[in-house]
Amino acid sequence: MTEKVGFISLGCPKNRVDSEYMLGLLEGEGFQMERRPEEADVLLVNTCTFIEQAQRESIEAILEAAQWKEKGRCRALVVTGCLAQRYGEELRRELPEVDVILGTGGLDGLPGLVRQALARVPSTALSYPGYVPGLVPRLLSTPSHLGYLKIAEGCNNHCSFCIIPAVRGRFRSRRPEVLLEEARALAALGVKELILVAQDVTSYGRDLERSGPLARPGLKKEVKKDSAEEPFAEESAHIPVGLQREMPAASGTDLAELLQRLHELEDLKWIRLLYTYPGKINERLLTAMAGSRKVVRYLDLPLQHASRKILREMRRAGDQETYMRLIERIRRALPGVVLRSSFIVGFPGERESDFLELLDFLRLVEIDRVGIFQYSQERGTPAGERPDQVPPEVKEERYNQAMALQREIAQVRNQRQVGQVREFLVERVTPSGQVYGRWEGQAPEIDGQTILYWRGKREEGGTGGPALKSPPAARVDAKGKARPVPGDFFRVLLTAAGPYDFAAQPVDS
């Protein structure tokens, strides 16, 4: 009998890619995927541990899955991912109902561990996180037109608030030939928008000559073994922010070259970058972006703060002036670029003057999309050990102030887009024919949506922008053409905007 596997994936897009690798490995070993947890023989929870809220969500998901061992047909509960890597021994002690605990260091061993669990042999596998996927099977969990390409594992930046180097290891690029082969496979499956992700995509390729071959085309799976290292043994070296001097990777491959090679894949329509590092943006990268019609004019650039004092204590280079110069150069190199960033309020030792400096910076640079996060005290990080933690009520107040300001800025920035013709990707069509999607300045899941009004009508109301409700849309347009389906691209006129969402009308070709 074929065992069925149910899957719960939490956290960021990078974790989602890991989930898709695990699903592919299991399917390749004869397991069958099952969406209904009550019908699954094996339930797998891929966890996140980035901040306290993510940890709580992961624990709740594990406990909820464990219930199916009593009221369903589940015979094995598997916990993987960052929470498993970080707190594996604690999970083993506190949650005896979990059969397999697998960290981030050996995903290719999952099928064998699941087989052991079904034979009632529990196991815990918590090796150093040195795994780098080669050409492994992958089962997509995204809509067919969208795919993430994880170009590297781990991180060398060692920000003082972040636990990621401890649970993901040092930065390790995947080989370019492996990435190109995976990108071709995704395009062959119908992926039109390819989103490059890593903890720091701008570091791609810098380690390849030192690390040697990590994978060879044609191999189903391959693991590179690393020795254990202290996650905070040293601070990372930073080149001053602005634009980094030209330093291509020693191997001859860097992010700019990777983008150029991905551009050559005919079936891809959009290529998007997430998680760039401000101190590593250089002219070579911007030139590659500007020279490709497929690389969208969108840049995710987490800055985290604007106070020089706080940035130094975060172990991040830069200050308000250097960030302003960097943003000016990006906007000059990529006219019309949409910028996204994230900022942390309530970092240990953050004074009122530091916070006001952040607000002044937001007003000055007018970033299009911004995520504001309250600092989360994380055990095992330098910032988490500091005695000068900011009180929760102060963090909450600063969060509310920053969010209110950014909503105003986003409304102004978005309103400037009204009247512009943009390329639009269809993501969802309701039974009544209403079309939802995104234009290139919107990343999936984090940036809102664009609602297409075929008849040029919209209803007032709702919050956060154009109303999501509209009169039933025609199934064909005035020329008798069939309405679009998810994955279609066409030109639209942006007709209205809120802080997050847009309304649009199709433009006759």
Task: Tell me what you see in this structure.
The chain has 509 residues and is of the alpha/beta class. The chain folds into 4 domains: 122 residues, Methylthiotransferase, N-terminal domain (Rossmann fold, 3-Layer(aba) Sandwich), CATH 3.40.50; 156 residues, 2-Layer Sandwich (Transcription Regulator spoIIAA); 115 residues, Transcription Regulator spoIIAA (2-Layer Sandwich); 86 residues, Nucleic acid-binding proteins (OB fold (Dihydrolipoamide Acetyltransferase, E2P), Beta Barrel), CATH 2.40.50. It is globular, with a radius of gyration of 23 Å. The termini are far apart. About 12% of the residues have low confidence.
Order of strands side by side in the largest beta sheet? 2-1-3-4-5-6
Low-confidence stretches: 210-250, 456-475
Query: What share of the residues lie within helices?
Result: 25-40%
Largest sheet, in brief, is: 6 strands, parallel
CATH architecture field of the largest domain: 2-Layer Sandwich
The whole-angstrom Rg is 23 Å
Instruction: Compute the separation of the termini in Å.
Output: 54 Å
Number of strands: 19
